[in-house]
Fold each of these.
Amino acid sequence: MKLDSSISAVITGGASGLGEATARALAADGVKVGIFDLNAEKGEALAKELGGVFAQCNVTDEAGVDAAFAKSREAIGQERILVNCAGIGNAIKTAGRNRETGEITAFPTDKFDLIIQINLVGTFRCIAKSAAGMMTLDPLENGDRGAMINTASVAAQDGQIGQAAYSASKAGVVGMTLPIARDLSREGIRINTILPGIFDTPLLAGAPEKVRQALGAQVPFPARLGAPDEYAHLAKTMIENGYFNGESVRLDGAIRMAPR
């Protein structure tokens, strides 16, 4: 798919971090961007800067997602690109023991379900609704109607202590990538997933510099945190390369996460 002003894109979680970097990279090629995010202040500012549109969106809210797509499509047209970056994490053991009091507690299932609803179900919700919209488009010269990028995590394959919910949600994203690619193959809609390692996103922005350096030092090469624009570069490659389909690719500097 050639990226230019005839193409529209929707980026969930697009107001910061990996989503913001991807929105900027696509807009630099002329793509019209729709930014979905909960943070209205950042989202509105970025959309204004890039000449796109912002829609406040909670991916767990069916009606809200429908409204966000409707707003974006009215402003910039039916998207041919969807990039799913909306997501959260937590760190809770399956069952834990308080070493001081001896109290034993189990992982609250409502907190487990929240991670699944946002990271996995929310991602699928946006995929299904975007795919239905893309199917109304005429195919491009190479047969493409659209391209989608999901964000998983290396935790999908080597989750750490306390990451049962997060790892399950991201493994689900990886697991559904190929079946969705097969579902949409006759419609000319491609889908791929990126599994980022340790990236320099707002999640780590408030961490002490020593902590950030220690995390970067765990990466075999290059021994540093990943840059959001490196994620955006891979996302663009997946979009532009018409033979890239149904793949889940680690972007992690060859790291394999230790148990903790």
Amino acid sequence: MSNEEPYDPDLVKEFFHHDYVDRGMLKWQGYYLSDHTAQLNKQAKKRAEVIQPKTIMTPAEIGQILQSAFANNYAVRLQLYSNASDGHLQPDVVGHIAGYYETQIILKDGQKIDLLNIRNVKSKD
């Protein structure tokens, strides 16, 4: 369009109504590069992975390991009871214990975990 021609909204409407063909999702396929598809495949594989349950520990055993890890500033690896909608176990939670609050432990990253939700704990060496 040159500077001499006035803007015509009807011409624009006519173009989009009769001449322009939207290719739908085809126009976005070029954005899926190999690193995108590799990441999508990695996520799908991770979702399909089933985590094996560890031995259920007693509250006394859990408390003893947590207390020792807190006192000696060791990292711990916690397997929690399932909170997932599919019933599968989630990956272990790993971190240092920053403190306790009522029936929860607080990790240094700020995550709060209910003591009754812990099924297994190990010192992370």
